[in-house]
Every structure is written in C-alpha cells, then in structure tokens.
Design brief:
The complex is a heterodimer of chains A (138) and B (117). Chain A is an alpha+beta fold and 138 residues long. Chain A has four helices and five strands, in the order βααββααββ. Chain A has a single domain, classed as 2-Layer Sandwich (Heat Shock Protein 90). In chain A, α1 packs antiparallel against α2 and α2 runs antiparallel to α4. Chain A is globular. Chain A starts with a strand and ends in a 6-residue tail after the last strand. By secondary structure, chain B is α/β, with parallel strands linked by helices. Chain B has one domain: Transcription Regulator spoIIAA (2-Layer Sandwich). In chain B, strands 1-2-3-4-5 form a five-stranded mixed beta sheet, with helices on both faces. The mean pLDDT of chain B is 92. The chains are: A alpha+beta (138), B alpha/beta (117). Chains A and B meet through α1, α2 and α4 of A and α2 and α3 of B.
Chain lengths: 138, 117
C-alpha cells in the first residue's frame, strides 16, 4: 500500500474542527470521491474531531490517502484524554456521557466503511476510520 | 433580511460551533425585535450537517416556536440529506422546502392555517 499524502491538524479549539473539515474535504475530493461520499466523510470527521475536542480535551487529526489495489482515505482522531470506559455503550445510538446527542460514534461508523476504536482509560483514545473508493459507484 | 412578516436567515456554508450558536442568539433577538411571524432558515450553501449543527437548528426552531414564530428549513443539498439521514438525525418535524421560493409559499400556508384556526 502506497501512501500518497499525509496531513495532520491539531485540535486545540473549536475553530480547528472547521480547519480539519476543510483539509479532509480537499483530500477526499483529491482521492476522487463523489459529492455524497465527500459529504459522508466530512460529516463523520466533524463528529469525531468534535469528540476529540469535547471529550479528549484536544488532540490530533491525521489523514492519509491510501493507494494500492483500492484507493481510499484513512483518518485517525487521537487524544490523550480520559479514554472511553464502555466502548459498547459509546457505540449505542443515543448514548452520551456528555452534552452530545449520542449520534457521533455510531453515526460516523455508518457513514464510513471501516472504524477501529482503541481506547484505554486514563491514557486516551484513537478512532481510525477508512472509506474506500468504489469506481462502479462513481 | 426582513420580508414583511417573514424573517429570512442564510446560514453560512461552513460555520464553526460558535458561529452557529451566535446565529441562534441573533435569530432570537431579531424575532423579538420585529413583527415577524415566520422564519425561513436557508441552508442551501451548508455542506456539512453534523449532530451539533442539527441540535442547534432543532433547538432554534423550538425557541422560535415558543416565541410565536413558525420556521421553514430551506434548501438542504441532496448529499447533505443523505448524510444527515444515515447519521441518524431527523431534525424533528421541522417543515422543509426545496428552495427559498417554495419555503415562502409553505410558510404563507402555515401562517394562514394558523390565522384561521
């Protein structure tokens, strides 16, 4: 798998969520995703960067273009916040430990093709999502 | 922008959370300071509707309703409608319209219905 492009944005304040959204939109368009998939990717990224900001106390959003048999975009959202105590609960629609609607994690998973959550209490959380380009849909 | 008894607000294309919250405050104070009975929220340039945006919009519509106003949400892009639905957001039962022209017609109907009831 060849990596074409890597970029990262530090999430320190709310405006950084918009900066991450813009960068990820450009990357997704660059990969060749159509408008609906670009919107799915950017919306999932918006949910997950907000989680980094609200629950993780800030962190890092990193993305890279995946080249190889299939083209795609991988985005990782990491923070060294309190971690997720109950992952199963966090993935349930409607569950929230904060002021959200509880749609972020399960919603982002539905919008993307793959989602991996690594979290340790007291250490932090990294959520990695991928979307693959399917030419037959383009 | 005010059109007779209708307040029309265009939501910026890629607003941060503070901008959306500010917009809510400005909408409510505009409703308070005017004779507007209806609000058209034009989201035709909005590219990303996430849960924060949806919640703030839903709340704003409820608040406007408590102040006696009726809101029509106008111009959601197709890609945004697909994404919002798959994300699991319903936006409650806010009346919607394809564009501002139709939103005006819908709003006038709703205001007329209420006047007659």
């Amino acid at each position: 798998m060849t990596i074409l492009d890597v970029a990262e944005i530090a999430i320190v304040n709310e405006q950084d969520i918009v900066v991450a959204r813009k960068g990820i939109r450009e990357a997704a368009v660059g990969v060749g995703f159509g408008l609906t998939d670009v919107t799915r990717i950017v919306t999932a990224a918006s949910e997950l960067s907000r989680n980094v900001y609200i629950y993780g106390g800030g962190g890092l959003v990193t993305w890279r273009v995946l080249l190889g048999d299939r083209r795609g975009l991988e985005i990782a959202f990491s923070d060294d916040g309190p971690g997720i105590e109950d992952l199963d609960k966090a993935m349930q629609p409607g569950y929230t430990s904060g002021r959200g609607m509880g749609m972020g994690m399960p919603g982002a998973k539905r919008l993307m093709d793959e989602m991996v959550v690594e979290s340790a209490v007291g250490v932090g959380t990294t959520v990695t999502v991928r979307k693959w380009l399917l030419h037959r849909y383009e | 922008m005010r059109l007779g008894s209708i307040l029309m607000v265009t939501v910026p294309s890629d607003p941060d959370d503070d901008t959306i919250s500010d917009l809510q405050v400005r909408i409510l104070s505009s409703m308070e300071g005017s004779t507007a009975l209806g609000l058209i929220l034009d989201i035709s340039t909005v590219q990303t509707v996430d849960s924060f945006f949806a919640r703030t919009i839903t709340e704003t519509v409820q608040m406007v309703s408590l102040m006696g106003g009726i809101t029509v949400l106008s111009g959601m892009q197709a890609a945004v409608a697909v994404t919002t639905t798959q994300l699991g957001l319903t936006l409650g039962s806010i009346p919607t319209a394809l564009n501002v022209d139709r939103a005006m017609i819908t709003l006038q109907h709703l205001l007329e219905e209420r006047r007659l009831s």
